[in-house]
TrEMBL record:
Enzyme Commission code(s) on record: 2.7.7.6
Self-association and partners: Part of the RNA polymerase complex.
Provenance organism: Methanosarcina thermophila
One GO-annotated biological process of the protein: DNA-templated transcription
Gene: rpo3
Pfam families named among the record's database cross-references: RNA_pol_A_bac (PF01000), RNA_pol_L (PF01193)
GO cellular component: cytoplasm; DNA-directed RNA polymerase complex
Protein name: DNA-directed RNA polymerase subunit Rpo3
Cofactor note: Binds 1 [3Fe-4S] cluster.
Free-text function comment from the UniProt entry: DNA-dependent RNA polymerase (RNAP) catalyzes the transcription of DNA into RNA using the four ribonucleoside triphosphates as substrates.
């Protein structure tokens, strides 16, 4: 397996994963979305709410606020050996909020019992309070998996495509392919059309250039063992940590299966 990093920031990444099967690539994608545990608000105790939103609407908005997650300090509630799933500092975090209008209540107004656990984005609007309106509540965040609820999905816009292979031979430089390409990556030269090495990965495999070529000079294919990955994180983890955690999930499942098989 080989990994070539193309782009990397705190929230997003683009890389080429090669010498792997389609099943493995899809396993990494699914793990990013569904199998890496994150913290999210699950229960809300509302003590005073005179805003225009119902309690249920407030709870839903709060549950979808991404929280920075420390995978080493917390475990999913159902897997907690300390409390057996009842709730304890090893599997849950308390966040309180007390606000009075006029003004907009933002995610930054949540006060966490653990300074390391904060909203990933501090400027997410929760509700607008008019003069005299109040909101007082306690939110309980638990570790969970994206496969159980969208509130725990750390990976967003995670996808991949096969690495394109573009073969151009005996081109008459008519220009039809360049005009048809939606990505604008085909360049015309005296010797014919060509695509630079830097632009090949931009190809969407639409095959429009292949279809419009009357002399069949262009052949579009793809590498079955190489994939261009694009991914984004909701802020619970950095993009790098999310990818590494997803790989560790796959590794852990493989080791678990190996251990079961070795018993026979």
């Amino acid at each position: 397996m080989e990994v070539d990093i193309l782009e990397l920031s705190d929230r997003s990444a683009k890389f080429v994963l090669s010498r792997v099967s389609t099943a493995f690539a899809n396993g990494i994608r699914r793990a990013m979305i569904a199998d890496v545990p994150t913290l999210a608000i699950e229960y809300v105790n509302i003590y005073d709410n005179t805003s225009v939103l119902y309690d249920e609407q407030l709870a839903l908005r709060l549950s979808l606020i991404p929280l920075v997650t420390d995978l080493e300090a917390y475990v999913p509630q159902a897997e907690c050996d300390v409390c057996g799933g009842e709730g304890c500092p090893a599997c849950e975090v308390s966040l309180t909020l007390s606000a009075e209008g006029p003004g907009v209540v933002y995610s930054r107004d949540l006060i966490s019992s653990d300074p390391k656990i904060q909203p990933a984005d501090l400027n997410i609007p929760i509700v607008e309070l008019k003069k005299g309106q109040k909101l007082v509540l306690e939110a309980i965040a638990h570790m969970g998996y994206g496969r159980d609820s969208a509130r725990w999905q750390a990976g967003i816009a995670c996808g991949y495509k096969n690495v394109p292979i573009i073969n151009i031979q005996n081109c008459d430089a008519c220009g039809h392919c360049a005009a048809e390409c939606p990505k604008g990556i085909i360049q015309l030269e005296e010797s014919g059309a060509r695509v630079s090495e830097e632009d090949i990965l931009k190809c969407s495999l639409c095959r429009l250039c292949e279809q419009v070529c009357d002399i069949h000079a262009i052949k579009i294919g793809y590498d079955e063992s190489a994939f261009v990955f694009t991914m984004e994180s909701d802020g619970s983890y950095t993009a790098k940590d999310l990818a590494l955690n997803a790989a560790n999930v796959i590794k852990g499942k493989a080791e678990e299966i190996l251990g079961i098989l070795n018993q026979f």
